[in-house]
Amino acid sequence: MARNNILYNLVNRYQISKSLFIAYFVCFGLLIYFVLNIFFGNKGLLAYRKLHHQFTKLDSEKQNLHNTIESKMQAVQNMNLQSLDLDLVDEQSRKVLGYINKDEVIIYQKK
User: Fold this and answer.
1) Which residues contact residue 6 at a Cβ distance below 8 angstroms, ignoring those fewer than 6 apart?
2) What are the domain boundaries of the chain?
3) Looking only at Cα atoms, what is the longest distance across the chain?
4) Distance CA 75, CA 73 (A)
5) Residue pLDDT, tens place only, 8-35
6) Would the pLDDT of 2 be above 60?
7) 101: confidence class by pLDDT, cuts 50, 70, 90
8) Distance (Å) of CA 75 to CA 44, 79, 82, 84, 95
9) pTM of the full predicted structure?
10) DSSP tag of 80
11) How many Å apart are CA 8 and CA 34, to the nearest integer?
12) CA distances from 83 to 77, 78, 87, 89, 91 (A)
């Protein structure tokens, strides 16, 4: 009766004991488990790439917000009484409040 089982033939050819075979099998299983966790685990390489992408995206968003804050702070600083820029005050009053001079005409455009 010929056996076609590869593992059985391997064990018989090299005369590996059952306990040694089980030890090899467990070590091989653990090796596969750890290799898969390196790539696909919660702290694996794919999760690292995803977190790195999110970090890069949030860092650029933070930089944009920082630039916006700087420009707003500069506008507020220019409205200070010691360095009052009359053109800036006039521009802001027209833009925000909708003020116009008496001799100006408003032309509305349809969008």
Assistant:
1) none
2) 1-40, 50-100
3) 112
4) 5
5) 888 888 888 888 989 999 999 999 999 9
6) no
7) confident
8) 46, 7, 14, 11, 14
9) 0.51
10) S
11) 27
12) 8, 6, 12, 11, 16
Task: Give the Å distances, CA to CA, from 91 to 61, 86, 96.
Answer: 29, 8, 8
- Amino acid letter, residue 110: K
Which tokens is 19 given?
């306990």
Identity of the amino acid at 81: L
Q: Is the alpha carbon torsion for 100, 104, 105, 109 positive or negative?
A: negative
Nearest-10 Cα torsion for 102, 104, 110, 111: -100
What is the model's pLDDT at position 3?
58
